Amino acid sequence: MNISTQAVQIGLEWDTRTGAVSVPIYQTATFRHPGLGQSTGYDYTRSGNPTRQSLEDGIARLDNGVRACAYASGMAAIANLLLLFRSGDHLIVTEDLYGGTCRLFDKVFDQFGLTFSYVDTSDIEAVRAALTPQTKAVFVESLTNPLLKFADIPALSTLCRNHTLYLIVDNTFLTPYLLRPLDLGADIAVYSASKYLAGHNDTIAGLVVVKDSDLAERVYYHQNAAGAILGPQDSWLVMRGIKTLGVRLDRQQENAGKLAGWLKNHPAITKVYYPGLEDHPGHALIKRDSRGFGGMIAFEVATHALVEQVLMKTRLISFAESLGGVESLITFPEVQTHADIPPELRARLGINDTLLRLSVGIEDSCDLIEDLRQALEA
User: Fold this and answer.
1) What is the mean pLDDT of residues 325-334?
2) Which helix (H) or strand (E) holds 297?
3) Pairwise CA distance, residues 302 & 72, whole Å
């Protein structure tokens, strides 16, 4: 089946007793045993819940993985993956990484002896040069936040296999609808499901999908042991969102392409980052590996004064953190999503005081363009 059809069908097979087309929300902490030493397959919701399992089974199918685990947030998902490693281990990670992930690496897990090297993971030779005998994994964002660089996952996979490393891909911006990292050689895909997968800016959740059965068992062990699981109500909300993933992303991509072209020709805009533009450095690569370019745009305005003007004057586009929902959102990465990245690294990367990040929603593109026009020209 086409992946959009698979997404719509998520959870549909679950309630064979009543035939309910919406997965029941099993809002229970524990389960009654049928007898001594017997189990229904569910004992305690931290270890497993039918609603959560429906979501986990569904996203595993969408990503062609053997198993998935759902967490209380995207950061909880990444934190649980770091439990795979030991003190002294080294990871190579994307340099223009989401600031929250950077904070988790440098301010939390560094105290447990993990070390991280930040490199341009769209440059395979830069990744190769960063390898050490202690390197155990490469962690990349398939499409980086906020500068939208694209990783060559097949090339990174070959490098990782040759050095017995895990390849972990944060695929939040593209989702399995546009890109399946496991099909391209990654070992693990991770998502902030709060974003495109849930899709309505109303849920916090994280998902991990694993390709190998033995590794999947280790990931599940840590999910159960650490306990940062997703509750049944939020699991149901994520499933409901995934059912419309295809139609939402199709519209968001269409809108993003139109807005990126319009922004590129506006005199107050000095630079536009969008992989759908032919002059984007990763355009050919993402066209080869992905089914689309996504709904995220970053752009630089001519002066810092224009930043506050745009943020305060837009009427349809909300000044808010997060992304991927049906409503368009705009943020200022330097002081919001990426404030935890060291200033010197932000400056080198181009996360500066004129850069804005736009999550394009499903509104009419003409209305979004007009909103940006009046804000820029107010």
Assistant:
1) 95
2) strand 296-301
3) 39
- How far is the C-alpha of 60 from the C-alpha of 153, rounded, in Å? 19
Q: pTM of the entire structure? A: 0.96
**The two structure tokens encoding residue 269:** 């805009």
Cα distance between residue 85 and residue 366, in whole Å: 49
Give the residue among 48, 53, 116, 51 at the shortest CA–CA distance from 82.
Answer: 116
Beta strands in 45-165 (DSSP E): 67-71, 90-94, 115-119, 135-141
- Which burial class, exposed, middle or buried, applies to 183 when counting CB atoms under 10 A from its CB (0-12, 13-18, 19+)? middle
- How many Cα atoms sit within 13 Å of 137 on the Cβ side? 23
**Mean of pLDDT values over 28-38:** 95
Q: Strand, helix or coil at 167? A: strand
Give the integer Cα–Cα distance in Å for 44 and 176.
30
Q: What is the side-by-side strand order in the sheet with 269-273?
A: 269-273, 296-301, 355-359, 329-331, 318-319
Sequence-separated (6 or more) residues with CB below 8 Å from residue 348: none
Closest to 43 in 3D by CA, of 32, 28, 57: 32
The predicted pLDDT at position 335 comes to 78
Longest dimension (CA), the chain: 74
Question: Which residues does the annotation mark as catalytic?
Answer: 46, 98, 170, 195
Q: What are phi and psi of 352, to 5 degrees?
A: -115, -170
Strands 355-359 and 90-94: unpaired
What pLDDT, in 10s, does the model give residues 289-326? 999 999 999 999 999 999 999 999 999 999 999 999 99
Q: What are phi and psi of 330, to 5 degrees?
A: -130, 140
DSSP-derived pairing of the beta strands 135-141 and 90-94 = parallel
